[in-house]
């Protein structure tokens, strides 16, 4: 009887863990205009908030690019190592109430991210309301 209980408990815990896919990890970003892979962003959690940092630039010609159009403390920083997702909070099945930086344009947008399965991440940047924005789908790096 004890073995049956432990087996059921193990199955239940494994099922819960697999059902709660995480947004944390490494994600390949895709240029929504060209369809080309651009970079690898590592998403981490700190103090209950989500952040994303560029950890690899896939185009060798752009590896030394700087955030020339950025303002404030991000101005002229190398894009490699730059935190582009800032302060998202979990709300239901998505993360919201944070910002995302477009290093090419130097603009900061409101941001919402949500999982589409366990290996696709929908990243939406917008101005004002979510209807006024665009969504990219990133792929998990294994």
TrEMBL record:
Keyword Secreted part of the UniProt annotation: no
Signal peptide residues on this chain, from the entry's feature table: 1-21
Domain DUF2147 residues, every copy: 25-140
Keywords assigned: Signal
Pfam families to which the protein is assigned, alphabetical: DUF2147 (PF09917)
The UniProt record lists the keyword Signal: yes
Xref: InterPro entries: DUF2147 (IPR019223)
PANTHER family xref list: BLL5882 PROTEIN, BLR1215 PROTEIN
This protein's name: DUF2147 domain-containing protein
Organism: Flavobacterium kingsejongi
